[in-house]
Here is the input.
Amino acid sequence: MKIIDITEASFGCEERPEGAPLMCCLVLETEAGVIYKEIPDADVERLGLKIGQEYVERKEEQ
Here is the structure.
């Protein structure tokens, strides 16, 4: 899976619930098409995820 965009996750018309972690939405290109996966912003930073790189889903994320 290739990361084609990283955006702030949407909580719809609601604001982020108090105490909830900031979430990001990874836009991933796969053989089957485009998928969207929400992960904590802290994980994006910790893993150093960048647009254009390959993304391998970790076992604990499934």
Observations:
- The chain has a mean pLDDT of 87.
- The longest strand covers residues 23-30.
- Residues 1-10+21-51 form one domain.
- Residues 41-47 form the longest helix (7 residues).
